[in-house]
Amino acid sequence: MLSVLVPTHNNEDRLAQMLPDLVRHAVSGAISDVIVLDGGSSDETVRVGEIAGCTIIDASGADMPAVLDAARGLWLLILPPGARLVGDWLATVEAHINAPAGAAGAARFRLARDPGLSLWARLFKRRGPAGPFGRGFLISKAQAQALSRPGMTLDALPRGVAVRTLRAGLLPPASR
Please, which residues have CB within 8 angstroms of residue 108's CB and are 6 or more apart in sequence? Predict the structure, then answer.
């Protein structure tokens, strides 16, 4: 069903924190594979991904169509390293994917509130990670393939794509 793509660069700790949740859903069959798109890490990021059974792709030389071909799922879920999906996110994603024809387009998650933060910390913390995948990005593999071009970077994929916000939450890595 879902291929999870995680763009990384020296994110061994964040990757190690997020992989147990993803592996649990891989065992249940909801996630078909996890692809670590590594941008030349000098730490143990690649090793963490390999130990967890992830597919590792060198993002610095990766061709977008080839990256998409490597994904086994019909839908792609791109997450920042260390992000955690909370609540009943899988049911929300399944409902979105199974929506009537034309209704299931690209989507992102709402930012979840970290219950471990005090009111003071919530008032002054950054609202969430920046970048195109700070709130996750869900897109059908077919739509991603139609948008991708040789030489295109992963960051360019969401540009110009209409995106709706799902009711499920994402706890960004900055909150943890």
Answer: 135, 136, 137, 138, 163, 164, 165, 166
127-139 average pLDDT score = 77
Residues 20-63: tens digit of each pLDDT:
999 899 989 999 999 999 999 999 999 999 999 999 999 987 78
Q: Flag whether the pTM goes above 0.85.
A: yes
Distance from C-alpha of 97 to C-alpha of 15, rounded to nearest angstrom? 26
Give tens-digit pLDDT for 57-101. 999 877 889 999 999 999 999 999 999 999 899 999 999 999 886
**Cβ-contact 32, 2 below 8 angstroms:** yes
Q: Burial, 21: exposed, middle or buried (Cβ in 10 Å; 0-12, 13-18, 19+)?
A: middle
- 7's CB contacts (< 8 A; 6+ apart) are 37, 39, 59, 78, 80, 81, 133, 154
**In sequence order, which residues have a C-beta less than 8 Å from that of residue 88 and are 6 or more positions away?**
168
Ordered by where they begin, the domains of the chain are 2-175 (3.90.550.10)
